[in-house]
Amino acid sequence: MTPGKQAPAEKTPADNKQAARSRRTTERLLAEARRLFAEHGFAGASAEQVVAAAGVTRGALYHHFDGKKGLFRAVVEQVQAEIKQRVRVAVERESDPLEMLIAGNDEFLAACLEPGVRRILLIDAPAALGWEAWREIDEANVLGEYRAFLGLLMDQGVLKPLPAEALAHVISGAANEAALWAAQADDPAAALTQAQRTMAELIRTLRAAG
C-alpha cells in the first residue's frame, strides 16, 4: 500500500444489505417504467404511476434516476443494450462477413418490430430525450457498431471503399425507417420480411468486386 494512504474500509453486512436494497429498487423501477412506457408512451406514463407500480417512493425515483426523464433514458439504454446483444448473437451465427452484416441488420429490424421497443426506442426516445442525447445512446449501441464493422470490412477488402461514416449513417438511418414502416404496416410480419429482404439486397451491392 502506498505510504500515507489508508486501505479502503471493508463493507459491513449493513452496507451489503443497503446495496442489495438499492439494486432491487433500481430493478423494480426499470421493470415497471419499461412496461408503462411501452404501453402508454413517455408522455402517457406519469412518475406517480411508475413509483406506485414499483412500490417505491417518489424520492427513490429521484435518488436513483433524477426523475422520470432520467429513468426513461435508463430504459432506452437497457433496450438498446439488449438489441445490441441480440444482434451480436445473430452475427456470430454467420461465417461470411457480408452475411454477418445482413444477419445483424435482420435482427435489429425484428427487435424493433416489437411494439414496446418501437415505441420506446424509435418514437419516444428522440422526442423525450432530445436529438443529441438519443444520438449519444445510438452511437454507443448501434451507429458505433455499424461504423466499426463497416470499416473492418472495407479494410479486409470485402466492401467497396466508401466513406465509413457516411455509410454507417445511411444504413443505420435506413434500418430505423424500415423498422418504423414495418411496425405500422397492415401486415407487420410481411412488411418485416420485405424490409429485411430489401436491405439485404442493398447491402450485397456493396460487396467489392472479386
Q: How would you portray this structure in words?
A:
The chain is mostly helical and 210 residues long. It has 9 helices and no strands. The chain has helices spanning 13-44, 47-54, 58-65, 68-92, 97-112, 115-129, 131-155, 164-184, 188-204. Helix 4 (68-92) packs antiparallel against helix 5 and helix 8 runs antiparallel to helix 9 (188-204). It is globular, with a radius of gyration of 21 Å. It starts with 12 loop residues before the first helix and ends in a 6-residue tail after the last helix. The mean pLDDT is 90.
Layout of helices and strands:
Layout: H1 13-44, H2 47-54, H3 58-65, H4 68-92, H5 97-112, H6 115-129, H7 131-155, H8 164-184, H9 188-204
Task: Please give a handful of descriptors for the protein shown.
mainly alpha; 210 residues
Give the structure's gist in a few sentences.
It is built from nine helices and no strands. By secondary structure, the protein is mainly alpha-helical.
Largest β-sheet summary: none
> Uncertain regions: pLDDT < 50 for 5+ in a row?
none
- Class computed from helices, strands and strand pairing: mainly alpha
Strand content: under 5%
Question: Based on DSSP secondary structure assignment, what is the total number of beta strands?
Answer: 0
Q: Give me the strand/helix succession.
A: HHHHHHHHH
InterPro entries: DNA-bd_HTH_TetR-type_CS, Homeodomain-like_sf, HTH-type_TetR-like_transc_reg, HTH_TetR, Rv0078-like_C
DNA-binding region: 46-65
Organism: Desulfoferula mesophila
Domain HTH tetR-type: 23-83
